[in-house]
């Protein structure tokens, strides 16, 4: 039996928090149960709360076309915890799981493709985290003498985002 952490209702949708280890099973039930049929994975994102022990809240928006209902499933994870990949349930999860890793650093267990999609391969850090500097760690410019683009460490005169 799956344990319900919390549930709330807002504007026609039900929001439910689940444990990380129950995420895959919960999402499978929502998709395959005849009384639910949440076949669409509409939106997936994450929210960064740096002051919390479980820093990231990973959010999934589901839609049942047949029953005209929405479900929001949330799971909280620390920086080191990985969430299970949902690519075997939803092909659309492939891109967003990769994006969430790059932008937030939320690890995904069992993902079939770990290539970067939005940043360069040498990029360090996760730019949507609140502790990432607004100007980044490096900058690139064109060097006339070398006739190529060069990268160098950026001098930061500002503090990182904190909230």
Low-confidence spans: none
Helix-strand category: alpha/beta
Large-scale geometry: elongated
CATH class of the domain at 6-113: Alpha Beta
Portion in beta strands: 25-35%
Query: How much is the average pLDDT?
Result: 85
- How many runs of DSSP E, i.e. beta strands? 9
CATH architecture level-2 label of the domain at 6-113: 2-Layer Sandwich
What is the CATH homology-level superfamily of the domain at 6-113? NADH:ubiquinone oxidoreductase Nqo5 subunit
Portion in helices: 10-25%
Mind explaining what this structure looks like?
- This protein is an alpha/beta fold and 163 residues long.
- The longest helix is centred in the middle third of the chain and has 12 residues, at 93-104.
- It has helices at residues 23-32, 93-104; strands at 6-10, 13-17, 40-48, 56-64, 69-77, 82-84, 107-109, 138-143, 148-153.
- A 5-stranded mixed sheet has the order 1-2-5-4-3, covered by helices on one side.
- The chain has a domain at 6-113: Beta Polymerase, domain 2, CATH 3.30.460.
- It is built from 2 helices and 9 strands, in the order ββαββββαβββ.
């Amino acid at each position: 039996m799956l344990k319900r952490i919390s549930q709330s209702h807002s504007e026609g949708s039900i929001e439910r928090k689940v444990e990380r280890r129950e995420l895959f099973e919960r999402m499978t039930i929502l998709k395959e149960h005849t009384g639910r049929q949440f076949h669409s994975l509409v939106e997936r994102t994450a929210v960064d709360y740096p002051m919390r022990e479980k820093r990231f809240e990973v959010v999934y928006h589901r839609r049942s076309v047949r029953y005209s209902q929405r479900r929001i499933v949330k799971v909280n994870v620390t920086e080191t915890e990985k969430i299970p990949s949902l690519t075997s349930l939803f092909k659309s999860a492939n891109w967003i799981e990769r994006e969430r890793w790059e932008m937030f650093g939320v690890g995904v267990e069992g993902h079939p493709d770990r290539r970067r999609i939005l940043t360069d391969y040498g990029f360090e850090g996760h730019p949507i985290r609140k502790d990432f500097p607004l100007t980044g760690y490096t900058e690139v410019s064109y060097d006339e003498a070398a006739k190529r683009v060069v990268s160098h460490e950026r001098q930061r005169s500002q503090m990182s985002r904190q909230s």
